[in-house]
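Review form for a predicted model. The reviewer records the input and the model, then writes brief findings.
Reviewer: anonymous (R2)
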Amino acid sequence: MYLSLSVIGSMIGKSYSALQIYCTRNNIKHVSHSGHLKLYDVRKFLNDYDLEIETGKVLVTVNQKGGVGKTTITVNTALALRNYGLKVLIIDFDQQGNVTDLLRMDTKPDFPSWYDVAINKKPLKDVILQSPYENLDVIPTDDRNMPYLSMEWQPQYQRRNWENHFNELLKEYDYILCDMPAQYDASLITVLQSCNELIIPVYLEQLSMLSMTRYFDKLNEINNDFNLSYKISLIPNRVNLTTSEHRSNLTLIEKQLNKFLIHNFENETVYVNQYQEFHKELTNEFSVWEHSKKSKMRDSILMIAKSILGLEVK
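Model under review:
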């Protein structure tokens, strides 16, 4: 995996010419005429420019409404984080298994999943798969958690186990991203108890907005019951500001839930536009990050990643 100097520049806030000079002075060789570098060199940039980043976090992507783009945001954000030279793990808790679909990973029906860790006490190392992307691994899902997971997974007993699991995994990974199903189940309550940041994609149409309001009420109830505290990042997703509905609902969110939104240095709301390009790139077997072509979606995901890392969002 290689990244162009223009992409790296946008990641760390440095100009293309400044990075060229840096490469020359430090004898870092480009692997192509367009100046593509390995992930190792990106991490070296961070260290040499004294850019401190926050690591050791569990991120949880949730929304009770289906089709709002939870998995797309999870996978894209994971790819953005690993572009900084970080080691990232996605745990797919959604029985649909779209994480491995998006990453073009062929999981066999009998391959162990997180279910085997939670219920069958299988070691974590036995359920981790390497993705096609360097520094990005996956613990896959399966459909055995339905319909009886809620009877077998008891949060009061599983919380300690999964705290230990996450602590063990964070010795190996800089970030863990959990892609959760739309419905409420005991797995959500358990994972929230180890969560550092909650990422909530929202689609700016009326039913999704109503569902989001109910979801916040439910989260407040869970937080009060279990005395939880975590950062919440609300991500307007699949945004099309040519429609009056999306424009008015974005304005409504900015008025009522502004503290949960990510803002750039000009105090503008960060949102993700319609993302056909992302699926096209994955279908062509490379991600939106592996070329220097400008895209609004890539810029938005990069700002989300910067917010997570504690870097200036611009």
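Findings: The chain has two domains: 1-52, 53-309.
Further findings: The chain has a mean pLDDT of 81.
Recommendation: see findings above.
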